[in-house]
Write a structure and sequence with these properties.
nine-stranded mixed sheet; single chain; four-stranded antiparallel sheet; binds iron/sulfur cluster
């Protein structure tokens, strides 16, 4: 499988990225063995047995890597723990002081366990396919789920940074929300989501590959959940255009043959994790690694755009996507991440086309490329998606108002959710502290737990432990504590006022925003019907929705603005670098500044204007937007919109979500309807139809079935709805 995270692009110029290569690979992956006792259907390490190099050759390879100054050596497989060479390799790595990392699905035992206890890896990615049943079935062995968690505990106890790695297939995509919970409870500090690569056994399993609609849902999942957990979309999806900053900490860059290479068990050197020996540039048992690196991968380093890519205005930034996914046949995921149907805003173009001047391409808008052949067999090209946001009747589009953001809390440092009291921080080039994972706070950790488990005394205790002393009176924390203790007012007007009061918090958290919206929506879904609301209640609800839209817009602009830093150049000398590209953290690379220059080149000097345009194109919680058709009603209804229904009689409309079958509903005359009210009316009119789809499917993101799911599953199943 491809790398969990990406190797950095340390070269000076962005043009070097596509046409050139590093004099020394940043990352060398070593498939130590293809052996494994498990039988995962997605494993690339399948095929004819390959003879591994002998122990002397293995030690010599470690020496070559260390002598060359490679930043990271990643041991992978197969299952590297199955290799009899591993103890000697690890001993040699330790002797040479080489930074290294490990991919595994097993718990070390026997001699290698002792060796690892003495010389733990800097970073370990442990495979986790989903909940116990899903994981064990996938791995072909009962007990492998428990073993994976035990392995995470083992390596955390040794001080290694631990990630959970999930390859998302059609078999486990429906379990992703449950997997989020498991990862959250596990010792993993980071969660990486991978796509299947058609190699090895997976080459014969097209049934496991995600279809277009599933890929789109996966992209949304990552976007949303990154507000709560350190989660990253791995490289195999390739470049994701304007959605990149929502999916990854740094722009996707394919480093195959230019920043990284892979050594196969017998010493063949290939650009990435493929067993295709026609891609080999030489064998380390007969030629030095650095010579192979210097002279090899010529075609890849001069990678010319496929005919399809030549006509694509993203090529300058995309470079044709993940080599591993595309070298056997053209594949493009543009129709997964691109929003079609609307010309891109100039600011968006600035983000996506930052390289055009360097590459000599033309910035002319081009039609979307053809969907690749394999994908076309899966599913037709992109669904018709439209942009824009609905305007409530007499209540225009909620604007993301730009108001001065509250000062960040001085004593609330960046904290990963998995390790809320122990931030993973390294020193940047100026001695400043740099958080290695998505910046998340203690409040996200508490809210995620509350959303997954529901209010309880235990949660209150946890909250009080985590909450910074100085925030005891902060309105956001006060609200969260009331929620955790089950003390929120049941009366709609009082609840609305409590939500508005919480917006005075000094926290700026999209997790908190989601909890506030959820707290307002609950009495809307469960209380008296909307047409029975009095004028005071209406005014309270409207004022609260407006306040949420305005304040959350401000928070979001601030939060995502900082995430966009690596993408959108700012007029500042140094951009704080969330560096999680190499697995063997924590050393920031010496070329950090150069990498930042490269990013500035790549994404252009777009500044505030680009941020505004970008936010406008990616509205908050847009995966929950409903399409409403009928006379004088908005075409799209977002969570911050309100529909006024005139006094002249009930209004017949159809409501649908993301191309689902339209459902007729009657909006009561004279009412003011929020998004939650519309859900309620649809549910009341169509419960039978809504019950027909299996609730366990990954389509659980369908908001029209939220009232049904609330009734059936309560909090445990609600995470996917309410974490947006
Ligand atoms: S081919 Fe490139 S993008 Fe794909 S996994 Fe390998 S290095 Fe990453
Ligand atoms: S056609 Fe697809 S793969 Fe090629 S450059 Fe455009 S987005 Fe990338």
């Amino acid at each position: 499988m491809g790398t969990y995270a990406r190797t950095p692009h340390p070269s000076r110029r962005s043009s070097d990225l596509r046409g050139g290569h590093r004099p020394i690979p940043s990352l060398v992956q070593w498939m130590v063995t293809l052996d494994c006792q498990l039988t995962c259907p997605h494993c690339l390490a399948a095929g004819d047995p390959v003879s591994a190099m002998d122990v002397e050759a293995a030690r010599a390879l470690v020496d070559q890597v260390a002598d060359a100054g490679v930043e990271e050596l990643l041991l992978t497989g197969g299952e590297p723990l199955s290799s009899p060479l591993l103890p000697a390799i690890v001993e040699q790595i330790a002797q040479r002081g080489q930074a290294w990392s490990l991919n595994t699905a097993r718990l070390p035992t026997g001699r290698i366990r002792d060796v690892l206890q003495r010389h733990p890896p800097d970073f370990v990615a442990v495979s986790l396919d989903g909940p116990r049943r899903v994981h064990d079935a996938f791995r072909g062995r009962i007990g492998s789920f428990d073993e994976a968690l035990e392995s995470m505990r083992f390596f955390r106890a040794l001080g290694s940074q631990v990630a959970a790695g999930t390859t998302v297939t059609r078999r486990n995509i429906a379990s992703l929300t449950h997997t989020l919970r498991i990862v959250h409870d596990s010792p993993a500090q980071v969660w990486g989501l991978h796509l299947l690569v058609p190699e090895g056994r997976a080459a014969d399993r097209p049934d496991l590959r995600l279809r277009r609609r599933e890929l789109r849902r996966l992209v949304r999942f990552v976007e949303d959940k990154r507000n709560y957990v350190p989660l990253e979309m791995a490289d195999e999806l390739g470049f994701c255009g304007e959605r990149e900053p929502l999916l990854r900490n740094l722009p996707m860059t394919c480093g195959a043959g230019r920043m990284q290479c892979v050594v196969l068990p017998d010493g063949e050197v290939v650009p990435c994790t493929t067993l295709d020996r026609t891609a080999s540039a030489g064998n380390v048992t007969t030629r030095p690694l650095l010579d192979i690196w210097r002279d090899g991968f010529g075609a890849l380093r001069q990678r010319r755009p496929e005919p399809r890519c030549q006509a694509c205005d993203y090529f300058a930034a995309c470079g044709g996507g993940c080599w591993l996914q595309t070298h056997d046949q053209p594949r493009c995921y543009r129709d997964v991440w691109e929003r079609t149907g609307q010309p891109r805003a100039a600011a968006g173009l600035a983000v996506a086309l930052g390289l055009l001047s360097a590459s000599g391409c033309s910035a002319v808008q081009q039609p979307a490329p053809e969907t690749d052949v394999a994908a076309a067999q899966d599913e037709p090209p992109a669904d018709a998606e439209t942009d824009g946001h609905g305007h409530g009747h007499g209540h225009g589009k909620p604007e993301l108002l730009v108001t001065p953001a509250p000062e960040p809390a001085p004593d609330l440092g960046p904290v990963s959710v998995a390790e809320a009291r122990e931030p993973l921080v390294v020193s940047g080039p100026r001695g400043e502290e740099v958080d290695l994972v998505v910046e998340l706070g203690a409040i996200e950790a508490v809210i995620l737990r509350l959303t997954l488990d529901g209010p309880s005394t235990e949660r209150v205790d946890e909250l009080q432990r985590i909450r910074p002393e100085s925030h005891a009176d902060d309105p956001g924390w006060v609200f969260v504590e009331s929620y955790a203790a089950g003390r929120l007012p049941g009366d709609l007007s009082e609840r609305a006022r409590a939500v508005r009061a919480a917006l005075g918090t000094s926290e700026r958290s999209l997790a908190l925003a989601a909890l506030l919206y959820r707290s307002l929506a609950e009495p809307l879904l469960e209380g008296p019907p909307p047409q029975d609301r009095g004028s005071v209640e209406r005014a309270e609800v409207r004022a609260t929705i407006d306040a949420l839209a305005t304040t959350v817009g401000t928070w979001r602009r601030d939060i995502l603005g900082s995430r966009l830093d690596p993408y959108l150049a700012r007029d500042r000398e140094h951009v704080p670098h969330r560096f999680m590209m190499l697995k063997s953290m924590p050393q920031p690379p010496p070329e950090l500044r150069l990498a930042q220059d490269t990013l500035q080149e790549r994404w252009g000097h777009a500044g505030q204007e680009a941020l505004d345009g970008w936010l406008d194109r990616h509205p908050y919680a847009d995966s929950l937007t409903l399409d409403i058709e009928g006379p004088s009603t908005p075409s799209r209804l977002g969570i911050h919109d309100i529909v006024d229904v005139g006094p002249d009689g009930d209004l017949g409309v159809t409501v649908r979500w993301e191309g689902s079958e339209p459902l007729d509903v009657s909006l009561p005359a004279g009412s003011e309807l929020t998004w939650a009210d519309v859900l309620r009316l649809v549910d009341e009119a169509h419960r039978g139809t809504l019950e027909q789809k299996p609730l366990e499917s990954f389509d659980q993101g369908d908001p029209l079935r939220l009232p049904l799911r609330r009734e059936r599953f309560e909090t445990d199943w609600l995470a996917d709805f309410w974490l947006f």
